Amino acid sequence: MNILWFMCDQLRYDYLGCAGHPHIRTPNFDSVAAKGVRFNHAYCQSPKCGPSRMSAYTGRYVRSHGASTNFAALRVGEPTLGDHLITVGVDPVLIGKTHMNADVEGMKRLGIDEGSDIGIRTAECGFIPYVRDDGLHPHVGKDDPDYFEYVRSHGYEADNPWADLANAAEDENGNVVSGWFMRHARKPARIPAHLSESAYITDRTLQFMQGTLKDRPWVAHVSYIKPHWPFIAPAPYNDMYDSSQVLPAVREDHELAPRNSVVRSFQNEKYSTAFHRQEVRDTVIPTYMGLITQIDDEIGRILDYLKESGQDKDTMIILSSDHGDYLGDHWLSEKQLFHDPSVRVPLIIYDPRDEANKTRGTISDTLVELIDVAPTILEVYSGTPLPHIFEGESLIPALHSGSNTLRDYVVSECDYSEDNARRDLKHGPRECKIRMIADKRWKLVQYEKDYPQLFDRLNDPNELTDIAIEREHQDVLLDMHNKLFEWARNPKANICTSDTRITQSDEAWKFYDSRALAGFPIGYWSEDEFEREVKARSAFLKKKCEEIKEP
Amino acid sequence: MNILWFMCDQLRYDYLGCAGHPHIRTPNFDSVAAKGVRFNHAYCQSPKCGPSRMSAYTGRYVRSHGASTNFAALRVGEPTLGDHLITVGVDPVLIGKTHMNADVEGMKRLGIDEGSDIGIRTAECGFIPYVRDDGLHPHVGKDDPDYFEYVRSHGYEADNPWADLANAAEDENGNVVSGWFMRHARKPARIPAHLSESAYITDRTLQFMQGTLKDRPWVAHVSYIKPHWPFIAPAPYNDMYDSSQVLPAVREDHELAPRNSVVRSFQNEKYSTAFHRQEVRDTVIPTYMGLITQIDDEIGRILDYLKESGQDKDTMIILSSDHGDYLGDHWLSEKQLFHDPSVRVPLIIYDPRDEANKTRGTISDTLVELIDVAPTILEVYSGTPLPHIFEGESLIPALHSGSNTLRDYVVSECDYSEDNARRDLKHGPRECKIRMIADKRWKLVQYEKDYPQLFDRLNDPNELTDIAIEREHQDVLLDMHNKLFEWARNPKANICTSDTRITQSDEAWKFYDSRALAGFPIGYWSEDEFEREVKARSAFLKKKCEEIKEP
């Protein structure tokens, strides 16, 4: 079996037809949901591209892999899904974005040749890079992406095809305008849809799948750059939705005076204040929706190819996103913080095997984390779940039996040391930590340098009212606090020792002092005592054997 | 300047003359204390050889480096003091024990050649191994230590010089008996003192120091295997102390019925029950003391050489141990748990530089951790304290100005997954975590699967009474609990990003939107707005310049 693991960038959990959005059209997402399982309570491990993805690709929380900001490198030696797949004979192929920053210093320290296969995979978060493209190419220079060449090979010329064509438009006078400026969001990009970034990623994926016969199974991470900003789409997607289809912002005036200064600082960010204005929402959100439908169409091309080539019965499909986008909800935009529009993600998995027949088309309410994807994928190829490394859990039981008991709470983290909030509030570089812990009812957001927030999602499903200060909820606050402490003190750090390694001598210990027989007879006063001990253990062994013979 | 970092194995904090032991003779430890600083509240990060040393050599807590048991490998890529020293042009040399288990799988995954310089250092915890010897050689075979050869080269022959000579004795009939059996502890080892393991480590150290001219400064980790068991000493050290000099066991009957099952399980270990008997203590402890005096003599030989060769003014000396030994206190022996005899360690530092003149011969009450040694050493050679990697703090301020404000609490951890307690109590391999947090008055020991312990060291300096259950101490329990939570949620995981890297654009942000100028103008509605923003920032810059000109 092969696996296609699709990831979108900044796609909210609720902007899909199958997730209940009343206007958006995502027939291909919906079709995968109809034959797979849609996990309706999936959370990313950091509402930021880099750390969220490093968690997804390692199956480990941010506090464990350490790459807590968008600029932070993933430390060399941090084991990735790609490493585990290579070990079991599966190729982990990358087509698109990872946000990986290589630990160049660490690689140098360990003498790893950047040009070797291992060096390349180490720098690419464990993936074999068929295409690496993180999007966002405002500058031209020596690191021009393959996408520039791709656009040019189709007859479109520009100094910077990304900035001048794919992320630019033309105004009423024919002047070229930049896609960065959101007032242009409804204008069509200066490139046909079939040459846009999303189409490019699809083309390269099809090229990979149609390429030379593979002698090993593969997992392809197909990682689209959209609907991440700049908010500009090619025709017809720029004009597919209009402001009448923009849902009202989920926010109340009282939220503009939060007790928490970090929240206030993010609300004051330029990107947030822009979305305080309805004009911005009415202009940008239809395009955000168009970009999503475009990706849906692109995924459709790949699904069609799977069907045509007869691969649909032996290809698992995973649809996901790295985090959401506030789009003005709670007076915020972008992501970073922990309301559901930011931290909750779509996750749909189609397992073609018969064992999954029972759950097809179902919605799972299990609390799921994005770190569950890596162990799920590994379990397809190997019986070894690596519970000493992965902090996520395999979703195979949920896919095969509808098991609903994965975990009691989800956790997500944010490090705002590279955000203006740190500068605003004069917090130290290592103090900018926020952690969210949530079950289906309660959500606690704990700030290293600020007041906590608590939301009651049963009585306040939109998370509008922080009740952390209310007397009657102090017990809940303490309970969630204790659960967060439990999580915090139990990182999986001893990644070199498997559970089997630990328990391997347990049987032996029942019959003799293993330590002594290994040459370390600790605690014995005399040879006699040692002799007696061995005899006593032998008697036990003899009795055991008799019990087995005559139960 | 060069540095000699001595480490003993299983040397209690209080078994030194300068630490107040009424009988033991350690004139060389005392002489270093007299010209340096003796840190009287130093704690190891795990009362077990392996994890304690991995913390010492990385400057990081066990929960961060992950090697939490004696068999656990240190993950490849975990940065060590040796790595940092190499970077600043200093050779980190090893002579003796580290308890390092190489992450062979990880090295293979990263293509690191085990035979290369980098491969050797990676497998040796960052050190250049002049001699690696962890002691404990019950078996002969292909991995025979250099020590076998050393003994033989001095004319002593045996199949296993370690087991048959250095750790064996002869009974009254001339039969060879094993040093494992503690009843023989007072008999002399079958080897002269100058060929024992401690002498061997000293000889190799002198050989290293006298060897070919070094063109780079060096830090030599001189790491003795003693006074760790087997408890057997060569003459005259076997007979240097007698049972009249054995201090009474610090224990009370009520401690034998602890609320905590993990403690009870360790009290029931063979090595503990042995020390419940006074006969065992009276036999073993004099030899334990003899082994310490022997190491003191050995260190004296090196101190003499420093003086003779004129190196005493440019060689820093650090005396330390990896953990203590209960020796029957609290009905325990060995280490593992968190009473002071186990978790508190000796730490004496002599800094020959004039800046340290003010503190010579003083005792520091600062709360110190063994992870402070690595940053202290690095600071000698480099201004870069690496606070994003080290979780310890440099002791240079304490050495130079007597600064007494290093930290509010110390933390130490134990993972008993490889101990009988796990098997006894049927705890899972990942549940066997204990953490201690202590300030000078209170000590909380928190067990993942058991009741906490709390000690009031002011009113109960011997930690005889667990008061965790007492109503009037619930506030303290909560306070220590909260401090442990603070510690637990703030590991230094983002080891690839320095503070400087984070704050480098702060100045720029005061004058313009750095993000925008880097090519990512997020949140702008229009070109006009962008223009206005740039102008506003320029006006701010202009005003700033004027302020500077005319304050």
Task: Please describe the structure with a list of short key phrases separated by commas or semicolons.
about 15% strand, 21 helices, homodimer, 4-stranded antiparallel beta sheet
User: What is the beta-strand fraction of chain A?
Assistant: 5-15%
Largest sheet report of chain A = 9 strands, mixed
Oligomeric assembly: homodimer
Number of strands of chain A: 15
Can you walk through the features of this model?
The structure is a homodimer of 551-residue chains. Chain A contains 21 helices and 15 strands. Chain A is α/β, with parallel strands linked by helices and 551 residues long. In chain A, the strands form three sheets. In chain A, strands 1, 2, 3, 4, 7, 8, 9, 10 and 11 form a nine-stranded mixed beta sheet that branches. A four-stranded antiparallel beta sheet of chain A has the order 12-13-14-15, with helices on one face. In chain A, a hairpin with a 5-residue loop joins β14 and β15 (453-456). In chain A, α9 packs parallel to α12 (278-308). The two termini of chain A are 46 Å apart. The mean pLDDT of chain A is 95. At the A-B interface, α3, α5, α6, α11 and α16 of A face α3, α5, α6, α11 and α16 of B.
List strands and helices in order, with pairings.
The structure is a homodimer of 551-residue chains.
Chain A lengths: L1 E7 L18 H9 L1 E7 L5 H10 L3 H4 L15 H7 L3 E6 L7 H6 L7 H7 L4 E5 L13 H8 L7 H6 L1 E3 L5 E3 L18 H14 L7 E6 L37 H7 L2 H7 L1 H31 L6 E7 L18 H4 E2 L1 E4 L11 E8 L3 H9 L14 H6 L8 E6 L4 H6 L7 E6 L3 E6 L5 E4 L17 H15 L10 H5 L2 H6 L2 H4 L9 H23 L2
Parallel strand pairs in A: 1-7, 1-8, 2-11, 3-4, 3-7
Antiparallel strand pairs in A: 2-9, 2-10, 5-6, 8-10, 12-13, 13-14, 14-15
Helix pairs in contact in A: 9-12
